[in-house]
Design goal:
With 349 residues, the chain is α/β, with parallel strands linked by helices. The protein contains twelve helices and 18 strands. The strands form four sheets. Strands 3, 5, 6, 9, 10, 17 and 18 form a seven-stranded mixed sheet that branches. Helix 5 links the parallel strand 11 and strand 12. The longest helix has 13 residues. 48% of the residues are buried. The mean pLDDT is 96.
Length: 349
């Protein structure tokens, strides 16, 4: 079968590999759609970050080359021995977190903070950029008929957004700012709407992405129009309650912090490739807080339920659909050349 594998930085290959089987406790899936994540792009341009390049991952025992893709949906076509959660024919999304179950974080139920945490599609074992894949049963979540396969491929990134909002200090009626309205930033806007934010300010350089933010109900701010912090302070009479940093660009983190009011919070959602210098006084003098999240935990069912209610709409977030044969040139390279894309989905066929 065809599968996209990561060999090294800027070295992805569409290989023919053996089709997986559903081993004990596993579920074999015919992949329908898989999204290209910002993390995938980071691995392509600046990796390895999460990918085990030289030393095998402690939970999968695998190292590069590995099959990529962790935002995907599909149909169950085979179940392994002992599987009871799903059956052949079920439509599913995959929660791709590997955790050890034994460390202190896992014992507290915070499996996304596992000492050995890895992602299916980044840490080995298989991935969604393939025709078929076989995953552990505990990663499987059923999709209702009202949630399409395209929506199913958005469950994973939507879970990041919902987890970020849940972990923040946001209260119903608060004013918030979202810095960066790429795929995750737009999904954060959707999660904020569901959580009852009163006003959402979206800071974005790209005109197309600002328009998308406005379509989702945010008030768009163009950094080219002047000092972003001053604009937000003026619009909010002193600053937002919570700012979400979703760019991974060091200077933007400083802007996000300074856009909050006293006792405000800045939530880091993005993955940074470089260090981001900040002045501690910007936190200390106003008793602000700075925190961050990685991945998600225990939110997939809530995301799927919100999708069934109309949140996280694929028709507004997916800007390009391609095949597995096009994934390198039209997908990864396409995202580098056309930064205005929101979400590219890959059809596994």
């Amino acid at each position: 079968m065809k599968a996209l594998r990561w060999y090294n930085q800027k070295d992805l290959r569409l290989d023919n590999i053996d089709e997986p089987i559903a081993r004990k406790g596993e579920v074999k899936i015919k992949v329908e759609w898989c999204g290209i994540c910002g993390s995938d792009l980071h691995e392509y341009t600046a990796g390895p970050i999460f990918i085990p390049a030289e030393t095998p991952h402690p939970l999968t025992g695998k190292k590069a080359p590995i099959v990529m893709g962790h935002e995907f949906s599909g149909q169950v076509i085979e179940v392994g021995e002992g599987v009871t959660k799903v059956q052949v024919g079920d439509r599913v999304a995959v929660e791709p977190i590997y955790s050890c179950g034994e460390c202190a974080a896992c014992k507290q139920g915070k499996y996304n903070l596992c000492e050995k945490m890895g992602f299916y599609g980044l840490a080995g074992g298989g991935g969604g950029f393939s025709e078929f894949t076989s995953v552990p049963e505990h990663m499987i979540h059923k999709l209702p008929e009202t949630v399409s396969y395209e929506q199913g491929a958005l469950v994973e990134p939507s879970a990041v957004a919902l987890h970020a909002v849940k972990q923040s200090k946001l209260k119903v009626g608060d004013e918030v700012a979202v810095f960066g309205t790429g795929p995750i930033g737009l999904l954060v806007i959707e999660a904020l709407k569901a959580a009852g934010a009163a006003k959402i300010y979206a800071v974005e350089l790209s005109e197309q992405r600002r328009q998308k933010a406005e379509e989702l109900g945010a008030i768009a701010i163009d950094p080219n129009d002047g000092d972003v912090v001053e604009q937000i302070q003026k619009l909010t009479n002193g600053g937002v309650d919570v700012a979400f940093e979703v760019t991974g660009v060091p200077p933007v983190l400083k802007q996000a912090i300074n856009s909050t009011k006293f006792n405000g919070e800045t939530m880091i959602v993005s993955i940074f490739e470089k260090e981001a210098p900040i002045h501690p006084q910007n936190l200390v003098l106003k008793e602000r807080t700075l925190t961050g999240i990685i991945g998600y935990r225990d939110v997939f069912p809530a995301v799927i339920s919100l999708m069934a209610q109309g949140y996280f709409p694929a028709d507004k977030l997916v800007t390009k659909r391609i095949t597995l044969d096009e994934v390198i040139d039209e997908g990864f390279e396409g995202l580098l050349k056309e930064r205005n894309h929101i979400k590219i989905l890959v059809k596994a066929e």
